[in-house]
Amino acid sequence: MSTESETIQVKPYNVVNKFVEFFKAFESEEGFKYRKLISSMVLDSKISLVIDWQDLLAYDEELANKLIDNPKEMLEAASQAIKEVMRVENPEFYEKVEYFHARIRGLPDTCHVSIRGIRALHIGRLIAVEGIVTKISPVKQQLIEGVFRCRTCGTEVKVVQQDQGFAKPSICPVCEKQGKKRSEFDFVPEKSRFLDWQRFVLQEKPEELPSGQLPRSIDVILKEDLVDSVRPGDRATIIGFLSISRERTRNEGAPLFKPYLEANYVEVVSKENLDLEITPEDVEKILELSRRKDIRELIINTIAPSIYGYEKIKKAIATLLFGGVPKVYPDGVKVRGDIHILLVGDPGTAKSQILRYVSSIAPRGIYTTGKGSTAAGLTAAVVREKSTGDFFLEAGALVLADGGVACIDEFDKMDPKDRVSIHEAMEQQTISIAKAGIVATLNARASVLAAANPAFGRYMLNRPVSENIDLPVTILSRFDLIFIMTDRPDKERDVELARHVLDFHSEKYPEYVENVIPRDLLKKYIAYARKYVRPKLSEEAKKKLMDFYVEMRSKGEGEGSPIAITPRQLEALIRLAEAHARMALSEVVTVEDAEAAIDLMNTFLHEVGIDVETRRLDIDVVMTGQSKSQREKIMIIMDLIRRMIEDNEGEPIRREDVIKRAVEIGFEESFVRRVLDKLQESGELMEPRPGYILRTVA
Ligand code: ADP
Ligand code: MG
């Protein structure tokens, strides 16, 4: 044996050969898996090959274990092996690509670490971490090999860059020979080598957060073909090396480091996969439950059993949990399946309690307040990181709840910047953002269960809903159902409620509380229904919904009568009926499902859609914020203003004069003032100088 081959023995060359062998020889049911994958890399111009750790384990246990113990060198060897195979397989492609990457997935359980569980012992190791992507930087270019040109003689010098700092040459080799001690250099970017680079933040999943704890997170670095493989709101498993970077602190003592993950492989969990493991035994229990006649009552009973009453609201929430079926029409138009519900009510009517409960049983449920828990608020934002000055795209609550339910308390306290984007979020279920060079569209396919407090502290039943809530009607109209929760003394209800609450406090639970589904099972039941059941409308159900719609519309026919219902409500009805069918895992939407949907819609329309002045049903109260009778009154006032301006030869008129004249013809002063405010707000009137008004359009 020659000495040369001996040196090869101790170098990691044999590891490279082992990987080459593995790629060539590994055979599964699919045939020579890695040979095929390597040839397909050429077709798709890919520079990465994904290795299943389990395959490696089956082929060579020692190699698989070595990879876990010494990941950096082993993966380097595997990457070289890809290059080796490629040299034979496709010399042309081999020439074109400088570096190939071996990526690894399917690590054993021992390599899975929670974000909270990351410790010093994991540094330098390959670990798998699960979480949700909350913020992401734009793609940048990292310098790995810099070329510098000497200002004196033009010689170019190459400097390989290390992880920290910008390494420059200090002396030019040509000038040095002529006795110079220092040289000046210019950086030559077009001859230097860069890598695509991106940083994002992976956070603990909200539903896995220990209650009362703040979520923890870790920075992840993506390079080359991995950049842009995740978006904010994605749930992902990242396999990578745990590295550390120096913390810039004024701390005395030994230096401190902050961990970050250098990604090797990224697996994004699909929206349908609800991160819940449903075993075959679970499926059996789920199917058994679904066959019970009282399954729907059972589900409704399970929603916040400690809260007394509110049967209709709980029923509506049950439909929200299951949701309708999203649709994409042949022309590309999408209709959401998610149901949005708003609860408006007096303080202390258990709104917050209900929301918290729902977030605990909903798949991917999130509880937040209108202000949101981060700078990103409810939708999304571009934020600047203080320590680095970098801009990040950060996901808000609706993006984080993608594929689940966002329970938003104090909805009326929403940030003004969210008010604009929430329209898109609730209807198209996406959020578009363009700021500081970041342009992105994020998914927000979530149901919204929102709670709001009345604008005047207490709900005023003699005022339309739009006046009671401090939110634009365009947002109100995005809700499928709105419920009002008032706290008025009512002897009978008060006695019942008190008994219920006192019983709960003394741990004497009413009978029906025993008749509930265990929370974990309900969660799985809902996840199963959302994933596998896609009910279709039966002919009878269609007819029922159609008849209801046409009948309600006909109430809006004829001169001057209010419109009771719009196509928006028809879509809501279909969603509600589908959700009602899903509650029993039924593939068909029956007449009963349609009736249940109509019943919920009627409750909503009667509570909220009533023109408080004429006591007639009028969806415009919700949709435009004005009932027909009110609109007529506003027209009269506008007419009056127009005539007064005409009489004044087009010059601005005094606001107080308008009010005086309007009161003379029978209007209430406060009403006129309110109308003037609103008209000014909406831009129909302007105030050229204090106390004077003019019509915007003459
Ligand atoms: P809100 O958010 O509407 O202001 P909360 O959810 O904070 O109200 O409720 C206040 C308290 O009153 C809670 O402890 C809640 O359990 C109790 N409560 C209110 N209404 C009911 C009810 N119908 N049944 C049981 N408890 C109730
Ligand atoms: Mg509250």
What does the model show?
35% of the residues are buried. This protein is α/β, with parallel strands linked by helices and 698 residues long. The protein is built from 26 helices and 28 strands. α2 packs across α6 (71-89), α4 (53-59) packs across α5 and α9 (280-290) crosses α19 (519-532). It starts with a helix and ends with a strand. A hairpin with a 5-residue loop joins β11 and β12 (334-335). The chain is globular. The strands form 8 sheets. Strands 3-7-8-10-9 form a 5-stranded mixed beta barrel. The chain has a 5-stranded parallel beta sheet with strand order 14-17-20-13-21. The structure holds adenosine-5'-diphosphate (ADP) and magnesium ion.
Q: What distance lies between the first and last C-alpha atoms, to the nearest angstrom?
A: 102 Å
Proportion of beta-strand residues: 15-25%
What's the number of extended β-strand segments?
A: 28
As laid out across the biggest beta sheet, the strand order is 3-7-8-10-9
- Sum up the overall morphology in one term: globular
**Mean pLDDT, all residues:** 83
> Based on helices, strands and strand pairing, what is the structural class?
alpha/beta
Q: Roughly what percent helix?
A: 25-40%
Radius of gyration using CA atoms only: 33 Å
Major sheet: 5 strands, mixed, barrel
* Weakly predicted, low-confidence segments: 1-12
Number of helices: 26
Ligands in the structure? adenosine-5'-diphosphate, magnesium ion
